[in-house]
Amino acid sequence: MPPQPEWFAGRDAVRRFLARILPAEAREFRCVPLAANGGLAAAIYARPMTRDVEYEAAAINVIAVRGGLIAEMIRFASPKLFPLFGLPAHLPSDGPGDHAGGA
């Protein structure tokens, strides 16, 4: 994965980042829980806001929890990692009534 020159420390910094980037992306997301490196992780699938379009593999997020709170999250934005976890490259759309969580 190419390095990304971004580092966010604390809830406020993450909140500001998400408030700026998520509306610009205009995508819906699905998260599939999994384990990576002996800890928590999530496979992130994304699609345009258009209905009846499959979700595509986007990233694997490895999550560190301390004191019951997310303390760190490392994002590997490489769909090529999905098969290593036995995950498909695409998830189907739920169809016209799809109410998946969006950004």
Task: Give the secondary structure arrangement, pairings included.
Elements: H1 11-25, E1 27-36, E2 39-48, E3 55-66, E4 69-76, E5 90-91
Antiparallel strand pairs: 1-2, 2-3, 3-4, 3-5
Q: What characteristics describe this protein?
A:
five-stranded antiparallel beta sheet, 103 residues, mainly beta, globular
Describe the structure.
- This protein is mostly beta strands and 103 residues long.
- The protein has a domain of 65 residues.
- It is 15% helix and 41% strand.
- It is built from 1 helix and 5 strands; from the N terminus they run αβββββ.
- Strands 1, 2, 3, 4 and 5 form a 5-stranded antiparallel beta sheet that branches.
Q: Quick recap of the structure?
A:
The chain has 103 residues and is mainly β. It has a domain at 27-91. It has one helix spanning 11-25; strands at residues 27-36, 39-48, 55-66, 69-76, 90-91.
